[in-house]
Amino acid sequence: MENPGEQPLISLRNAVKTFGPVVALADGSIDLHAGEIHALAGENGAGKSTLVKVLAGLHHRDSGDFEIEGQPVSFATVADSRAAGISVIYQEPTLFPDLTVAENIFIGRQPRGRFGMIDHRLMRDHASAIFEELGVPIDPDRLAEGLSIADQQIIEIAKAISLEARVLVMDEPTAALSGHEVDRLFAVARSLRDKGAALMFISHRMEEIFSLCDRVTVMRDGRYVTTRMIPDTTPSQIVRDMVGRDIDQLFPKFDAQVGAPVLEVEGLNRAGVFRNISFCVRAGEIVALSGLVGAGRSEVARAVMGIDPIDSGTVTLLGKRLKPGQPMAAIRGGMGFVPEDRRKQGLVMELSVLRNTALTLRDGLARFGIINARKEAEVAAEWGRKLQVKSSSPYNSVATLSGGNQQKVVLAKWLATKPKLLIVDEPTRGIDVGTKAEVHRLLSQLAVDGVAILMISSELPEVLGMADRVLVMCEGAITAEFPRAEATPERIIEAATDHAKAAAS
Question: What is its main location (predicted)?
Answer without folding.
Answer: membrane
